[in-house]
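Following up on my earlier thread - several people asked me to post the actual chain instead of describing it. Fair enough. Here it is, all 384 residues.
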Amino acid sequence: MRVFSLGLLDHLKPRAITRDLEWGVPIPLAGYDDKRIYVWFDAVIGYLSASIEWARRVGRPDAWKEWWLNPASRHYYFMGKDNIVFHSIIWPSMLIGCGADVGGGTQAARGSPLQLPYEVVSSEYLTLEGKKFSSSRGVTIYVRDVLSRYAADALRFYLAIAGPETQDTDFTWAEFVRRNNDELIANWGNLVNRVLAIAYRFFGQVPEPGKLEEADQSLLAAVEAGFTSVGGLIEEARFKAALGEALRLADLANKYVSDQEPWKLIKSDRQRVAAVVYTALQAVDDLKVLFTPFLPFSSQKLHALLGYQGFLAGPLVFQEAAEALGATHRVLTGDYSSWVGRWEPPWLPVGQRLQQPVPLFGKLDESVFEEELTRLRNERTQLG
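Reply from S.P.:
Thanks for posting it. Predicted structure:
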């Protein structure tokens, strides 16, 4: 991103911020009735104006300054590489130009600089079955359409683990099926299913563990360390590596369960099984949090299966927001203070009742590959 941006500096030239269009934000000047603000000049302003609007809606009209005027704040922007110029050149120029004289700022705020982008996280291009995405040519994946057939977390998992983070990547339906079945289900889904099934069958609740052995403590320490390792990778915007680290820890937990063989121990040492099941449940509970940024829907489902109440991260809701001149528009928000998820080990309570286990994910049949390719071919045929 930095190299790309520096390369633009030798070619800077004035750019119009208006377009001859009938739609868009009008120019509030005489003689500009037939022009509209260029969408990318208008769009980036939304980062700041949405913050000011939020502060007004929650009854703290100056709260936006705690973020935009705070030198310690770190502003991250996420986009595809074709939008780098707007966030590394144009938007910083606008921020420098307007300073702090925005949002009806007080005299005390004037002169304090608005914080510039700290990091612009840009991905490479994603293609579809070897072709560039194009709605006019029928090379598309419509979100509403695909979510009518597949779980949101299955799609999120594939895009996070195989997406174009550092190089152009091709989305193929065959790889989507393979990743879902051989990685998501075979690793994380398998761990959750076997641990919850054993715990529910033998105890029905979180058992009292008694004394934990070295193997138990070792697993718990390794998974707990994931809050540092996975969290650090997320802070570095290395999402593919962060998800890979969470999967590695889930694999450790799977190996622990296989090595301990609680289904055999139950015949001779129920107390030891209690320690093993408690350890495995606690590891699953910790991993639930580590996977939440990538798999929020299934993590919430697991949260309930473990006997918890409340929402880890959600739900989100649409609300109507009033504008200065009496108009309204819809905003997507949530009651964030009520979310129970925290980036720390949740410490599963002994005695907490467990719900009857159900699979978190569904296995995909290999026929999905041909079905989706047929849909693509039909879409292209219809468009001629």
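The beta strands are 18-19, 36-37, 76-80, 119-123, 126-128, 131-132, 169-171, 317-322, 328-333. That should answer part of your original question.
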